[in-house]
Amino acid sequence: MKVLKFGGTSVGSADSILSVKKIVEAENYQPVIVVVSALGGITDKLIYASKLAAQGDISYEKEHLEIVTRHINVISGVISEKQLKDEVTCHALSLLDELGNIFKGVYLIKDLSPKTSDTIVSYGERLSSYIISKVIDEAVLFDARQFIKTSKQFNKHVVNMDETFALIQKTFTRLPKVAVVPGFISSSQEDGEVTNIGRGGSDYTAALIASALQADGLEIWTDVDGFMTADPKVISTAYTIDHLTFVEAMELCNFGAKVIYPPTIYPAFHSNIPILIKNTFNPGAKGTFINKDKENRNEKSIKGISSINDTTLITIQGLGMCGVIGVNYRIFKTLAKAGISVFLVSQASSENTTSIGVSDADAELATKVLREEFAAEMTHGEINDIKPEGNLATVAIVGENMKHTPGIAGKLFGTLGRNGINVIACAQGASETNISFVVARDHLRKTLNVIHDSFFLSEYQVLNLFLCGIGTVGGSLLEQICMQQPKLMAKNGLKLNVVGIADDKIALFDRNGIDLKTYKERLKKEGIMSSPEILQKEVLEMNIFNSVFIDCTASGQIASLYKALISHNISVVAANKIAASSAYSNYVELKEIARRKGVKYLFETNVMAGLPIINTINDLINSGDVITKIEAVLSGTLNYIFNTISAEIPFSKTIHMAMEARYSEPDPRIDLSGKDVIRKLVILARESGLRIEQDDVIKKLFVPEKYFEGSLDNFWSNIQEMDAEFEEKRKVLEKDQKRWRFVAKMENGTCSVGLTEVDSAHPFYDLEGSNNIILITTERYKDYPMIIKGYGAGASVTAAGVFADIISIANIR
Ligand code: ADP
Ligand code: ASP
Ligand code: MG
User: Fold this and answer.
1) What is the CB < 6 Å shell around ligand 1?
2) CA–CA gap between residue 470 and residue 484 (Å, rounded)
3) What predicted TM-score, i.e. pTM, was given to this entire model?
4) 525-545 pLDDT per residue, tens
5) Fewest CB atoms within 10 A around its CB: which of 446, 502, 632, 745?
6) What is the C-alpha separation between 575 and 220, in angstroms, rounded?
């Protein structure tokens, strides 16, 4: 014999009831007991309507009418034979009528006693079980109130096991082929009044029957494929667990995994009846099998994650508690007397604090009774004021294989720390099957995601990317990511999930990832207004794990967001040079916060685009080398200009050409004034260990300052004045067989930039197009400096450098 329980959604509509009929009738080789919930959502509606009635709100009638209509519609959907349909409708209507009269009574006297409330909610299961018993062939209806008996404990109805087991055995001495039983409802041992065994209690009804009758199996039919690694409504990547032990199932459902009502496990465990969780809407799925066996040694050490978000932590603390015997005894005795359940306890070995986790509903009473109990100690200062801390959530990771496996707690807390999630309290019992911890409620979603990702999706790693700036570099970066995504996933187990894209006008955020093939259309259609403030707010509020902010703008306002972002454990990859070349104190602070938070602040492309300069300097320094001199051509724009200038192409034209080729900064004056090179040199010098500001760099400029004053339009109209002077100088240079290079230099702690004439013997002489070159002299590379040369500007190489920074955060190399 088997017991099958069908939940609210499984009996929620005519179609689903017909699926139930099919499933039950397919079990034709043995008797079955079918336990059913109320039609999905009806219990909530009954409670809501009774509250309205109790408040004297006539709109309860509308709710009642909806309840009536729902049942009548279901009946017409599941029974086609006219006579039977009339009979069932007639009986259901008489029950619904009774219900209407009770509502009316509540409405008139504006009072809803617990007894009346229990009576009202019982109609949900009474109606559903009646209808279903008429739909399934050869089914016989039983009334659970006759054999599920409750007694009162701390104002709660608790099942009276002995009485209930005896009555179940008596009721089912002879089993029909199909017995249909309403779940959830019961009656009081003391006065026979209708009671219930708690929200979600139909699972428990089924387990009690299965246990009392020593059933061969208990099947819980619901709306998911089984017990999953986490609540699928929160974690979209959660997947079904094939097997759980009773202990694991108990740990998980006790802690919020709503798929089974917690008290359900114990009777099944006690009588060793295996439980199978199945999906009414996908009966072919294997489901989750729960039994005693721990035989599968290959199973993961963590089986599942569960959480409850209504958590209040109450801490009893004081130096006067150390070593005093009986403090904990008094805490728990006091709470037990008040009927308060404690679901998490944490006490440090110094014994001066004990923190307890209770549900928000119990917080006020718990605080009050504890304050009363410890009033004397609080007056004497032995114990501090007892205060509840709310807005918290408790998370548990569960698995019997955690036992004796070192490193689980390390992995758990390390993952949380890297993502900026603070653990407020934690508890692990010596049974090592559950580690529970408390976090701020606002962090719950992120917490569940990072843990799920780190323990269950270790086949691949996720980086969540926000990109600001979709100009030439940002646009090219998105193209490159789009092309590489499948390869990185398949070969490196790295999922790059772009969750935000913004420019200075428009922004789009989607925590599930933006498809890079269609991002432009989506931005146009769904984009919201963008500003640095909006961006910061959205990114921080999204509070998503393993996130990276990518700055492909040249904006100072965006650079000023880094501090807040890094402080919230978001890595920053910047093509934008402004932050790293800003005040030294700011540069150091950003690096320091990133180090402390365990995230990255990377800006390899700030100097020489995609060429590996900053990483190389870091590698040299970290391995003990000392950089004594740097000589470099760092401006692709300027080098292009000096390579292009000729008798036919005047100076001002070369600037236009550099812009058209997208080498220059959006404002070319940043290049011509040497500012861009100064920024790069300052960054190189700082990375080489020099404490330097932009103003410390000695500059020898080739365009007088006056051209940089005023608007960009003024600049364009005036700069032509320089053409003749340049042509004069160029002719002389050509005659001397020399070339111009704009050289940045660091030597003996001094930095300078300036236009230099180099002859054909100089390594800078043959530097083509917009290329860059750097000569690094160190104590190890003394006689022959290290030379790195190549494209120093251009959207695709810069984007590739940014991409490489992103990949280095994932650490997949
Ligand atoms: P029923 O009405 O069939 O009793 P419930 O709504 O009580 O169904 O329980 C099933 C729901 O439990 C699922 O729809 C799912 O959202 C939720 N749930 C929470 N945690 C888990 C988990 N770890 N695995 C599966 N489902 C879960
Ligand atoms: N109908 C009840 C509830 O919604 C019991 C159950 O569905 O298990 O809580
Ligand atoms: Mg349920």
Assistant:
1) 7-10, 37, 200, 222-224, 227-228, 230-233, 257-259, 304
2) 18
3) 0.70
4) 999 999 999 999 999 988 888
5) 745
6) 55
